[in-house]
Amino acid sequence: MTPPPARATRTDALTNRARILAVAGKAFATSSGASMTAIAKQAGVGVGTLYRHFPTREALIVELYHHEIQKVIDLAHTLAAERPPLDALRRWFEEVARYGKLKYGVSEVIHAATNGGLDDKNYEPFLEAIAVLLDAGAASGDLKPDTDPQDVLLQLSVLWRIPPGEGGEARAARILDLILDGLRTRPATS
């Protein structure tokens, strides 16, 4: 006996899921204590609908993490194709900083879900995204050649330790300036 074909997800369910993820991203970037009830209300769905999509708070956070980091990864390729290398890298760093605000309050859940990063399916693609931008900058002569993407990731990881709120964005911008400055090539001095 052949099993029945899988049913396609209804359009309204996909829309609800996308709206929940969008609201949750903003909510967790503002406060790691955002409640599931408040997220459901802001997304315009019932609490039951939220829990049908995400049975636990942790499930919502992990799905949001995968969703948001994939957007950051994809953006690297787009920026590398459309902008000058330094501009592309700076814009991508700014997006990583935005993502860092989300990760700040929920990093323990993400860390636990990815076994401390050892089981994180996004790790290699994230490194590859960094490499795309570094390679473009090295090819143009704007960035130091042979920079290890893992070294850059370690530098960027400080962004998810910056508490959101007053002064956080300014501090992130200063840190990004320092990282970018360290990656640039400099003319040899006599």
Describe this structure in words.
- It is a single chain.
- With 190 residues, the protein is an all-alpha fold.
- The protein folds into two domains: 10-55, Arc Repressor Mutant, subunit A, CATH 1.10.10; 57-183, Tetracycline Repressor, domain 2 (Orthogonal Bundle).
- The protein contains eight helices and no strands.
- It has helices at residues 11-30, 36-43, 47-53, 57-82, 85-113, 123-140, 149-156, 168-183.
- Helix 5 runs antiparallel to helix 6 (123-140).
- It is globular, with a radius of gyration of 19 Å.
- The termini are far apart.
- The mean pLDDT is 86.
| Number of distinct beta strands | 0
- How far is the first residue's CA from the last residue's CA? 81 Å
CATH fold call of the largest domain: Tetracycline Repressor, domain 2
The proportion of residues in beta strands is: under 5%
Mean pLDDT: 86
Instruction: Summarize the biggest pleated sheet.
Output: none
Supply the CATH architecture of the largest domain.
Answer: Orthogonal Bundle
- Radius of gyration over alpha carbons? 19 Å
Q: If helices are DSSP runs of H or I spanning 4 or more residues, what is the number of helices?
A: 8
Structural class: mainly alpha
CATH superfamily of the largest domain: Tetracycline Repressor, domain 2
GO molecular function: DNA-binding transcription factor activity; transcription cis-regulatory region binding
InterPro entries: Homeodomain-like_sf (IPR009057), HTH-type_TetR-like_transc_reg (IPR050109), HTH_TetR (IPR001647), Tet_transcr_reg_TetR-rel_C_sf (IPR036271), TetR_SbtR-like_C (IPR049445)
Pfam family, one: TetR_N
Protein name: TetR family transcriptional regulator
